[in-house]
Amino acid sequence: MTDTRTVSVLGTGIMGAAMARNLARAGHAVRAWNRTRAKAEPLAADGVHVADTPAEAVRDADVVLTMLHDGPAALDVMRRAADALRPGTVWAQSTTAGVAALGDLAAFARERDLVFYDAPVLGTRQPAEAGQLTVLAAGPVRGRERVAPVFDAVGTRTVWTGEDGAAGSATRLKLVANSWVLAATAATGEVLALAKALDVDPAGFFDLIAGGPLDMGYLRAKAGLILDGRLSPAQFAVDTAAKDARLIVEAGRDGGVRLDVAAAAAERLARAAAQGHAAEDMAAAYFASFDEPGGA
Questions:
Q1: Radius of gyration over alpha carbons of the chain, in Å?
Q2: Which of 165, 149, 145, 181 is nearest to 262 (CA)?
Q3: In whole angstroms, what is the distance from residue 237 CA to residue 245 CA?
Q4: Contact at 8 Å (CB) between 8 and 61?
Q5: 3 state SS of 154
Q6: Tens of pLDDT along 199-212?
Q7: Rounded Cα distance, 29 and 151, in Å
Q8: Identical fold between 6-165 and 172-289
Q9: Which of the residues 148, 176, 208, 236 could staple to 124 if both were Cys, CB 3.0 to 4.6 A apart?
Q10: Distance CA 191, CA 277 (A)
């Protein structure tokens, strides 16, 4: 078997579009579909075939990669593609679907005799565009050679977490990682809001922690987006981050733990979205610290 595949990418938002481009650049035959076709059409310039329907996109595909908003959206789209899916097709499910939804996705894969890989990714717009994502993957050892070239095209590292994709070990690790990302993002927004309220120059805070254990590249990166007004285009959008925060809270509750920080982050992101920042970078949760949208 050669290292090139026919790959269907369902969902061409921030992450899916970048992944489709990198797959095409790696020599794979790529077909893409998006609910809003206009968002997928620019991919044609990169040699990607833009399909009108999910069924058209997956017909004769070796690998189907889903990168949609959430688990229900992924299941809906795969059901729309069902009649065109060949038994034995590999399904790399990269949507951050959450633990609860994963069972329904894996059940669909079993019904259609698909080879299911739970394969969320770590990274945002910039690493996605550079093909430098980290792929978290769980699925059968036999058959990994079929999906490995796809993971290699979109990322620099694949972390295998288990042999049973339905068990969700990759998704569970992704939620743990995202809980840290969301907590750090929320803390960044609040420290800048407090500095504003107390008339403290943020530069003084950064000088204070520089080079010490409290300093962090991620803090400086997200703070820079806020301070410089570079929240668009989003690296990771507020509305998507809010969805992930809800999934984290739900997963914690189902596991018998209370995640107060994640719950607060979800509320902050929801407020920022209601203020009109839904499509901006998740650092825009900063604005949730102010009663008025322009209070910053």
A1: 20
A2: 181
A3: 12
A4: yes
A5: helix
A6: 999 999 999 999 99
A7: 15
A8: no
A9: 236
A10: 19
What CATH number does the domain located at 172-289 have?
1.10.1040.10
Q: DSSP label at 1?
A: -
Residue in this structure with the two tokens 């982050």, named with its chain if needed: 265
What's the whole-number average pLDDT of the chain?
A: 96
Q: Of 282, 284, 278, whose CA–CA distance to 296 is shortest? A: 284
Contact call for residues 281 and 225 (beta carbons, < 8 A): yes
Residue 80 · residue 55 · CB < 8 Å = yes
Using one digit for the tens of pLDDT, what is the confidence trace for 118-150?
999 999 999 999 999 999 999 999 989 999 999
Taking residues 87-105, report their average pLDDT.
97
pLDDT for residue 294? 54
Paired tokens of 42: 């620019």
Measured CA to CA, the distance from residue 225 to residue 242 in angstroms comes to 18
Residue 228 token pair: 């410089």
Whole-angstrom distance, CA of residue 186 vs CA of residue 264:
9
pLDDT category of residue 291 using cuts at 50, 70 and 90: confident
Between CA 266 and CA 264 the distance in angstroms is 5
Say whether 13 sits in a helix, a strand or coil: coil
**Encoded tokens for 259:** 């995640």
d(CA 118, CA 233): 28
Residue the block writes with tokens 């034995």: 88
Per domain, the residue ranges of the chain are 6-165, 172-289
The CATH code for residues 6-165 is 3.40.50.720
